């Protein structure tokens, strides 16, 4: 089957019955809703780019099953080059939309993690999960479906594991088995693109103990399955879309909504052939660890692309303000690029120096990818901080589009927020609104850049573990050089 186009993707959504609430109201037509449409646009763009000859090598590849052309987002990575292209793809894609394509991107990472881990589980336990994943994935590749990756549980009291929580539902779990499948209850929080996806791929959120059998759970489910409700995010920038009904004030009109939701599973039925893990607590940790490695790798391409977009927007802004030749401004821009490229390069290194799992899936190198992820989050924060400085007070004191266009006061706004002669004040305001959006003055980007892919401490833990693994060897080298013989 040929790859889907953006239009076909947009047409496929109304055929589903995904249940979405925004500010307490059920949304009748998802694709037309002003707060949902931007994320649909970004995902549609990711479909369209795969059809452009100049993007073919970035957005498409050959299925490892049968060599058919598939979208990169549904690929199983078998070579270091696949991982390198994954990073490059997001570095290329993010600056084109400045939003989020979690409905494809996080899913890609979950697909690779579950593919590799089910193979290991079957080898050890004689189960048949890997076959089920293969069957499901073949359909995903053939139909070019959008798959979101669902990992993060609600988690309740952070001191307690899944089976110790006073409310058992704060971690998604099995409540009942039937001859046909399992019934699950609980929720997944902060789910990027889950409601924009055709399929949701669910993984456990953390390592588990033998008591947590009902929670060691992985499965695939259509986003509109009976019993699933998506409760949509409502950050300040997205809210502004409804209040203002204006294209300038939202900064990134076409694509700029992140698109995450709280996904509630109220006794949802999952047929056995879609269950990919159930009760194998010892594999929950390795599965989520592998997912994290893939997702942190992709994150670096995405965030470096985001920094590129900020750089472009800032350059326009300083040219409009007559600051393009100012030395300290150039220095600050260099600082943004330096920090962004550091993460990007480190991610490419993690891709190149990864290793193959027993299933033949290529995974990123752990210490490099965790360092790259930490640096990527830092780069976005540094870019935002520099943007506050470079863009000036206009960034947070801009009047609205209605003021700009008012017959009474519009002339004042035009006159006093003008920059260099010949530049329309409206354009200066437009680019500053984009910087406002990109630098997180009104968006989810800073928090997402710190927390997406796991809170920073989880990367530090992995880096510490990798250091412990190497420390004996490193100490031995140091002692040898220092002439210590013990
Ligand atoms: C915009 C956005 C999009 C996202 N998209 C997705 C997605 O598509 N799919 C998905 O699965 N997830 C997604 N996430 C979730 C993301 O992975 C989590 O936000 C992250 O793992 C942190 O979890 P939390 O938000 O529950 O924060 P918390 O777990 O509450 O963490 C808050 C702080 O508490 C610390 N902490 C928490 N528990 C402990 C503990 N037991 N011991 C010590 N310290 C602790 C953390 O280190 C952190 O500093 C997204 C997040 C954001 C912000």
Automatic annotation (TrEMBL):
<feature type="domain" description="HpaB/PvcC/4-BUDH C-terminal">
    <location>
        <begin position="286"/>
        <end position="477"/>
    </location>
</feature>
<keyword id="KW-0285">Flavoprotein</keyword>
<dbReference type="Pfam" id="PF11794">
    <property type="entry name" value="HpaB_N"/>
</dbReference>
<keyword id="KW-0274">FAD</keyword>
<protein>
    <recommendedName>
        <fullName>4-hydroxybutyryl-CoA dehydratase</fullName>
    </recommendedName>
</protein>
<feature type="domain" description="HpaB/PvcC/4-BUDH N-terminal">
    <location>
        <begin position="5"/>
        <end position="277"/>
    </location>
</feature>
<dbReference type="InterPro" id="IPR009100">
    <property type="entry name" value="AcylCoA_DH/oxidase_NM_dom_sf"/>
</dbReference>
<dbReference type="InterPro" id="IPR024674">
    <property type="entry name" value="HpaB/PvcC/4-BUDH_N"/>
</dbReference>
<dbReference type="InterPro" id="IPR046373">
    <property type="entry name" value="Acyl-CoA_Oxase/DH_mid-dom_sf"/>
</dbReference>
<dbReference type="InterPro" id="IPR024719">
    <property type="entry name" value="HpaB/PvcC/4-BUDH_C"/>
</dbReference>
<dbReference type="InterPro" id="IPR036250">
    <property type="entry name" value="AcylCo_DH-like_C"/>
</dbReference>
<dbReference type="GO" id="GO:0016627">
    <property type="term" value="F:oxidoreductase activity, acting on the CH-CH group of donors"/>
</dbReference>
<dbReference type="InterPro" id="IPR004925">
    <property type="entry name" value="HpaB/PvcC/4-BUDH"/>
</dbReference>
<keyword id="KW-0560">Oxidoreductase</keyword>
<dbReference type="Pfam" id="PF03241">
    <property type="entry name" value="HpaB"/>
</dbReference>
């Amino acid at each position: 089957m040929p790859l889907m186009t953006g239009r076909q993707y947009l047409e496929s959504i109304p055929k589903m019955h995904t249940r979405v609430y925004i500010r307490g109201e059920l949304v009748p037509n998802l694709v037309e809703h002003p707060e949902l449409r931007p994320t649909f646009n970004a995902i549609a763009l990711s479909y369209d780019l795969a059809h452009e000859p100049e993007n073919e090598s970035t957005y498409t590849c050959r299925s490892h099953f049968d060599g058919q052309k598939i979208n990169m987002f549904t690929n199983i990575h078998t070579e270091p080059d696949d991982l390198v292209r994954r990073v490059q793809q997001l570095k290329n894609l993010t600056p084109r939309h400045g939003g989020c394509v979690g409905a494809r991107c996080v899913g890609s990472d979950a697909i690779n993690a579950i593919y590799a881990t089910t193979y290991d589980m079957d080898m050890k336990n004689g189960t048949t999960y890997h076959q089920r994943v293969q069957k499901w994935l073949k359909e995903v590749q053939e139909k070019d479906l959008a798959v979101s990756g669902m990992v993060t549980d609600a988690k309740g009291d952070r001191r307690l594991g899944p089976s110790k929580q006073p409310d058992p539902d704060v971690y998604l779990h099995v409540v009942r088995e039937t001859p046909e499948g399992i019934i699950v209850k609980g929720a997944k929080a902060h789910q990027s693109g889950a409601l924009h996806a055709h399929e949701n791929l669910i993984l456990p959120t953390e390592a588990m103990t033998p008591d947590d059998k009902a929670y060691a759970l992985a499965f695939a489910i259509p986003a509109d399955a009976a019993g699933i409700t998506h409760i949509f995010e409502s950050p300040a920038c997205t809210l502004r879309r409804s209040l203002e009904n204006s294209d300038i004030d939202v900064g990134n009109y076409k694509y700029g909504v992140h698109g995450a939701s709280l996904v509630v599973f109220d006794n949802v039925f999952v047929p056995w052939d879609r269950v990919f893990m159930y009760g194998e607590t010892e594999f929950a940790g390795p599965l989520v660890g592998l997912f994290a490695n893939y997702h942190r790798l992709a994150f670096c391409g995405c965030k470096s692309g985001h920094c590129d977009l900020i750089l472009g927007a800032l350059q326009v802004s300083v040219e409009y303000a007559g600051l393009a030749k100012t030395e300290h401004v150039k220095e600050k821009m260099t600082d943004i690029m330096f920090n962004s490229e550091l993460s990007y390069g480190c991610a490419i290194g993690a891709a190149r120096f990864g290793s193959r799992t027993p299933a033949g899936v290529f995974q990123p190198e752990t210490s490099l990818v965790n360092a790259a992820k930490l640096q990527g989050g830092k780069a976005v924060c540094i870019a935002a901080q520099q943007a506050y400085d470079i863009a000036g007070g206009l960034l947070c004191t801009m009047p609205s589009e209605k003021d700009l266009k008012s017959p009474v006061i519009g002339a004042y706004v035009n006159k006093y927020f003008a920059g260099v002669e010949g530049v329309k004040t409206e354009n200066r305001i437009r680019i500053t609104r984009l910087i406002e959006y990109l630098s997180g003055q009104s968006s989810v980007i800073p928090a997402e850049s710190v927390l997406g892919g796991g809170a920073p401490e989880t990367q530090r833990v992995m880096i510490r573990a990798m250091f412990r693994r190497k420390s004996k060897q490193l100490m031995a080298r140091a002692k040898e050089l220092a002439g210590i013989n013990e």
